[in-house]
Amino acid sequence: MLVHQETQGLFLVLYQVQYRLKMINLSVRDTEQEKDLRIAWQYKKYFGEHQQNFEYQRNGKPEYCNDFDLRKPLERHFLSGQCIDCISLQDSPNLATLNDRCSTFLAQLPRCDGNVMCAGRIAIQSFCAPQCEYSNMDWNMLSFIRSLKGMIRSSNAVAILTFPPSVVSSSFSKRLQHLADTLLSVRAIPDEDKELAKLLTGYQDMVGLLNLHKVARINTQVPVILEATTFSIKLLKRRSLVLECLNQAPVDASSGTSYATSGSCSGSSKTGTLDF
Amino acid sequence: MAESICRALRDGALDGEHAPALTIKDSIDSPFGPDVFNHILTQVSANILAGKSQSRGLVLVAFSRSPSFYHNLLKSRGHDVSSSHNWLRVLDCYTDPLGWKDRLIERGSITNLSPETSVTVNLCKDVRNLDNLFSSILELGKGLVGQRKNRFSVAIDSVTEMLRHASISAVASLLSNLRSHDQVSCEFWLLHSDLHEIRATAVLEYMSSMLATIEPMTRPPTNGQIGNSENLSLLDQNSKRGKLHVRFKRRNGRVRLMCEEFCVEQSGIKFTSISSEDGLITQSLVPKVQFNLQLSEKERVDRAKVVLPFEHQGNGKSIQIYDGRRSLDESTTEIKSVSAEKLQTNEDSGKGEIIYYRDSDDEMPDSDEDPDDDLDI
Amino acid sequence: MDRSSNLLDEALGLDDYQTKSSSVASGRVVLIEDCVETSGAFVLHHLIKRSLTPHSSGIVIFVAFAQPFSHYDRVLRKMGCNLVVQRDNKRFLFFDMLTLECPDGDGGKTNEGGLLELYGKIHEAVEICALSEDNRNCITIMIDDISLMEVAANGSSNHVLDFLHYCYTLTTQFGCLLVSLNHEDIYSSMEGPTLILQMEYLADIMIKAEPLATGLATDVHGQLTILNQGISDGLGNSRNKLRNFHFKVKENSVDYFYPGTRG
Q1: Which compartments does it reside in (chain A) (predicted)?
Q2: ipTM of model
C-alpha cells in the first residue's frame, strides 16, 4: 500500500506482536556496499546470493500501484530506477546513525512549491522492538521521532512507523500517539471463533482488524470525523488485501438519530481505546 | 481551628523549647493552601504589628509568589506596608531562583527590571544552596529584631518548590535548625501533598507541631472524565469551599484534633465551625483490636445491674454515692477494714465490714477527661 | 471585525469589550489540556486571533514545538487573521523549536542551557515589547506544546518546570498572559507526582478538552471544561467558576454551545 504523494506527515501504526501486516518492509540486513539497493515484499529473496541490478524503466514514467498480491514477489521493474535505502536497526546502539541517514535521504527531497515530481517514503518497522539496544532509552526514541517529524515537515516525504505498545510504557505510547499525524492500530482476529463467525460476515477471510484513530490535520484545525473507523482486513482469494468497513457511522449527537451501515462488529467500534 | 493556630503561633516558643511549626497541606482536589497560608500570614503580621506576639518581626521566604504579590496582599488587608521595613523582610526565591536572569543580564540579553515594591526584598539567586538560604534567613531575622533575646517568625510560602531543588533531608535539616534557633519564635510553611512522595510529606509532618490539612467537601472519584455531570457538580461544590483539619501536638504529649469548614471569598477566607465530628475522630483513635470494647445497650443495662462486692445489698439502704460533701470524720468512722470475702449484712454484729461508697457515677472508658484538669493548684 | 462573544470568551473573561485590553486579565496562567481523541489546539488558535485583533495592540510570542509556522498561518488565515502580516508587523513572534537540537543525553547542563537560552529570547522579546506603553499588559506567551518541550529537554521535567517558573515570573513582572498546552493522557497512567499536576497548580485557568461520553459525533467534536481558579489578589475577578459546554470546530471558527441547545 503506497501513500498518496501529496500528503505529508507521520503515520503511526500500532500492531500486536502476534500479527504483522506485510506491507512496506525494511530489510534487517545492512547492505551498505550496494549502491542500488532493494526494497522487496519478500525481502529474503533479494538478499544474500540473490542480489541483482536492474536499470529497467517502463516508458520513462515511474509507476505506482496499490494493487498487489502478497504471495508473489514484486515485479522487478517496479524496483528499477528507484532509490531505495535499507538500514538495520538491530545492531545500532543508538539512533544517531538512523537520524543521519534519514537526514541525508530527506535532504534530497526538499519542499518546493509546484509540481511534486518525487516523493520520499521512510518506513520503520518495529521501532521499539526489544532486541534493539536503544529500545530502553525512551527519551532518545522520542527525540528521534520528533526530529524525524521536523525533517519530514520540511521535505516532500512521508514516514510510516510501526511499534508494539505492549513492550513500552503507557505514557510513552501516548507520547508517540500524540506525535503521529495519522494513527492506526491493528489487532488480530481469534482463530476458529464460532461466536465471531456468526457475528461477522466473511469471518473466514478476515485476518485482522484495522482501527483508525487519528487522521492528519495539517494546515487545518477541523478534525476528521469518519463514517467508519474500524475495518476488517481480509485476504480475498488468498491474493488481494481488502479493507472493509465494519462499524456504525458516528451518531449525530444533536438530533439523536444514528446512521446504521451494514455489518456490525461487537465491541470494537469504540474509538480511542486500543485493545491489545 | 484557624484561630487556635494563630494563637499558638502568636504565643511562640518557650525558652529551651523548639519553636512551634505549622505545616499547611493541600492537594489538587482542594488547592486552597495558598489562601490559608495568606490568611495565617496576615494574622501573624497583625499580631506582630499590634505588639501582641512574642515575635517582633517576620521573615517571609517567597518561592511561589512574587514579593509584590505579598505587598499587595498586606496592603489590601489594611496593613501599612510603608512601615513594613520595621517588621518584615522578604527573601525573594521567586524572581531568579537559579540565577538564569543573572546570567542573561551578564550577557546583555536582558536588563534588570524588577517591579518596585516598598517591601524590603533580598534576592536569592541559588535556591539549591540551602546552607546559604539558612544563613540568609537568620541574617534577615537578626537584622529585623536585633541580636538579643528578641525573636522573629519565619514563613515559607512553598516547601514544595524548595523540595524541587533540594533533598528532603536538606530541607528537613533547615527547618529543624530554624526551629531550634533561640531567636525563632515560630515557623509556618505550605506543602502540596500530591506533588511529593509520601515519605517527604511524612517527614514534614513529623517536623511540625501543628498540621493543617485542607480537604475538599466531597472527595471526587479518581478516574473518569472531568466532563461528566457528577464530577462537574462535585468540582463546583469543591471550588469555593472545603474542610480544614488541624492536628495539634500539645505540650503534654497529647494530640488535639479539630475540624472546620471554610469558604473562599474575594476578600479572603472565612472559617466556620462544623457539626461535631469528635465522635468520629475518637472512634478512629481507639485501636482496632479483636475485642469489642464498645457496649451495646443491653450490655450497658446488665452491667448497671451488677452489684459490686462491697456495695450494700438490699438491706433497705440505697446505694450511696460519695459526693465529696460529707465530712471526713463521718465517713471514716464507718470504714473499717475487714476481710474482702464476707459481706456482713448484720449491722449489729460488731464485726468489721467494708462500706463502700462510689465517688461518682459510672465512668466511660477512654473518656477525654484529663484528671489533671480537675486539679486546682 | 468579529465582535461577537462566545461561551469560551465569557468563561475566560474576554467578553467585556469595555476594558481597554482585549486579552485575558493580565498576569494570568492558562493551561489547556487535551488528549489523543480530542485535540485542544483550536483553543490556542482562538486565543491567537483574540490577541491579534486590529483594535488592540496585543503581541503574541509563540513557542512552537508541534507545528511549523505554515500550519498556524494557514489555519489562522481561514479564521481571518494573517500571521505573515502580523509577523512582519512584529505583533506575532514565532519561535520555531521543531528542529531544536536534541542532545544525546549527555547530562543536565545541556538541557538546562537550551531552556535558559529559550527563556532568554522570550524575556528579551517581552522587554522590547513592554518598552512601548501600548503593548504593556497585552503580551501573550504561548507554548505548543509542553510534552514536546519535555522531549527536547530529554525528559528532564525539572528543567521544564524551571523554565515554566521563569516564564511565570514574566507574568508578574510584565503582566503577560502565559498559555501552554499539554496532553493530559500522557500523564494519567503515571504514578506519583507528574509534570501536568505541577502545571495545574500553577494555572489560574484550566481548559480541558475531552471527547463526549457518548463517543464520536459529526456535529459535536467534544466538550470543554473551564475552571477559572483565579488568584487571591483581592480583586473582583471571576473566581472559582466552573463551566462546561460542547463545541464543534469549523474552518473559520468554533461553535460553542450547551448540551442539547444546538438547533
Answers
A1: Cytoplasm; Nucleus
A2: 0.87
